[in-house]
Design brief:
5 helices; 39% helix; Ptyr_pPase; Ptyr_pPase_sf
């Protein structure tokens, strides 16, 4: 798939679907509107969306506080067939392995974006926020590099 081409459907995935993939899902929806069907999932869904992730997304006008974490397994239980996605973007090594394993029978692209997991990296609110901003900004720059500049203008 060519750079700057927005696929019809994108799945972002990471380990718990609580920080990196919800940030990516929220950004993709905010930046590219309805150009693509966007979802996210985790290898596990043992955590709720992270409060620091919500805070750093709010700073750039991306709303993720209503995100409900889900796993690949739950997605498939709910009828979201991974083969129906044009692109899967894995944001962690574990999610890349799982995406490749689950999609080996499909002809679809799995891309790996090595995005830092900010959980547990810093002590204190300001240091934690700085780590989460770094993760958010890594996702944003990879997204713009991959899909082009945001097309949705702020209301």
């Amino acid at each position: 798939m060519a750079q700057n081409t927005i696929p019809a459907s994108v799945l972002f995935c990471c380990d718990h679907n609580s920080i990196r993939s919800p940030i990516a899902e929220g950004m993709m929806k905010k930046f590219y509107g309805r150009a693509a069907y966007v979802q996210s999932a985790g290898v596990k869904n043992d955590m709720e969306v992270d409060g620091f992730a919500i805070a750093v997304c709010d700073e750039i006008g991306v709303r993720i506080e209503n995100h409900r974490s889900r796993s690949f397994e739950e997605m498939m239980d709910w009828g979201d067939d991974l083969g129906g996605f044009d692109l899967i973007v894995a944001l962690s090594p574990a999610s890349q392995r799982q995406a490749l394993e689950l999609t080996r029978v499909y002809h679809l692209d799995v891309e790996y974006w090595p995005i830092m997991d900010p959980a547990g990296l810093a002590e204190g609110r300001e240091a934690k926020l700085a780590a989460y901003r770094q993760t958010r900004d890594q996702i944003q720059s990879r997204m713009i590099e991959r899909f082009g500049p945001p097309v949705v203008k702020d209301d």
